[in-house]
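Weekly modeling sync, notes
Attendees: S.R. (lead), two postdocs, one rotation student

Agenda item 3: backlog of single-chain predictions. S.R. asked that every request posted to the team notebook include the full sequence so nobody has to chase files. The rotation student volunteered to paste the first one in as an example of the format we agreed on. Action items at the bottom.

Example entry:
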Amino acid sequence: MSENRLLIVNSKENIKIDKKFFSYINIGDGRVEIKNSIEINLSNQRKKYYQKYKNKLIELLNQKIKAFELKLNSFIQFEIFNLRNDKIANINLIINILIVRNIIKKKKN
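Predicted structure, as returned to the notebook:
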């Protein structure tokens, strides 16, 4: 049985790696260069799944907030999060991780 090795990189800096991997995914802002490896590009996957995972994330966070609200009688409404992509890069990172998880599930099957 052959071993498939996947490297997931999240870096703001441009990096170069000399070690060989079967494939890699860059979920950060920087450029990644790895010789003799295949880059799995997320752009097509993001076009296909971005809105789906964003909606799931909103729904999950909303459920957690409502559950917390039930525990506290004196819950005051706060602005918990703002899903404008230009304000918080972590939202994109979470969605990228969900997309990568989906890719890994498909490769295993």
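Discussion: group reviewed the output briefly. DSSP finds two helices and five strands in the chain.
Action items: rotation student to repeat for the remaining queue; S.R. to check formatting next week.
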